[in-house]
Specification:
Elements: E1 26-28, H1 41-46, E2 51-58, E3 64-72
Antiparallel strand pairs: 1-2, 2-3
């Protein structure tokens, strides 16, 4: 966790090209070749991460409450 502590959430940070408030799912099928993971590739390799998905969690009124992320090792 210390390796990613303090990283600001943004539209092109890590697993997703979507901003945190986007209401659509997003994925990166190959972390090794994704420009979104370029700054974190060594960290991803250290943990054997290969792909990632991000899904919004919506409230009853349709606003984004959070995003759930899954990483494949």
């Amino acid at each position: 966790m210390a390796a990613v502590d303090g990283i600001e959430i943004g539209p092109c940070v890590g697993r997703s090209e979507r901003p945190p408030t986007a209401k659509s799912k997003s994925s990166v099928s190959d972390i090794e070749t994704s420009p979104l993971w370029a700054n974190y590739l060594e960290l991803a390799r250290a943990y054997g991460l290969r792909a990632g998905w991000s899904t919004p969690i919506l409230s009853s009124d349709g606003s984004v409450l959070a995003r759930s992320a899954d990483l494949l090792a």
